[in-house]
Design goal:
There is one protein chain. By secondary structure, this protein is mostly helical. It has five helices and no strands. The longest helix has 41 residues, at 6-46. It has helices spanning 6-46, 54-75, 91-122, 136-139, 141-158. Helix 1 (6-46) runs antiparallel to helix 2 (54-75). Helices cover 68% and strands 0% of the residues.
Length: 171
Amino acid sequence: MLPSTGLPALWRRLCDLCEWTARAIVGASIAAIVLITIAAVWYRYGLDRPLSWTEQVCRILFVWSVFAGAAVLYRNMLHIAIDMFVLLLPRRLQTLVFWMNQGLILLLALLMLGFGLQISIGTLGQTFGALEISPASFYFAAPFCAALMIVFWIEKLLDPARRDPFGDVHL
């Protein structure tokens, strides 16, 4: 049941927007990787004029797609979980294990946010590769993902319905 009023409803709309943005990043990144790879093959083998920047751009896009995808998976509780032993516990202990797990995820997200920003900002003046762009172009994916995960963590706190897997789960 969706919260219809108040802070939980507003927070859900914010999370929906964040998830849509992350999904758009994943989709656009994967599409761009495919198109760039096709162009790289054509230029290398069809025109015998290889492009020097394709590997670097594809790597940046891949990093962003992985981090944004991880945040989407976390929101929908679709990340890999081995819960065989947890399901054998009494319901109260299952809840305790769930919140311990969520606490560790929050701690990881806070560390990724803090250290990711530190590394990203620290490398803004550096350049690498054929395009001579800053490595911060892909380092910023970590604090971006961490911020999304923190927003989604708060949603789990406000809305008990978001604590269960949502969407298609295929085993």
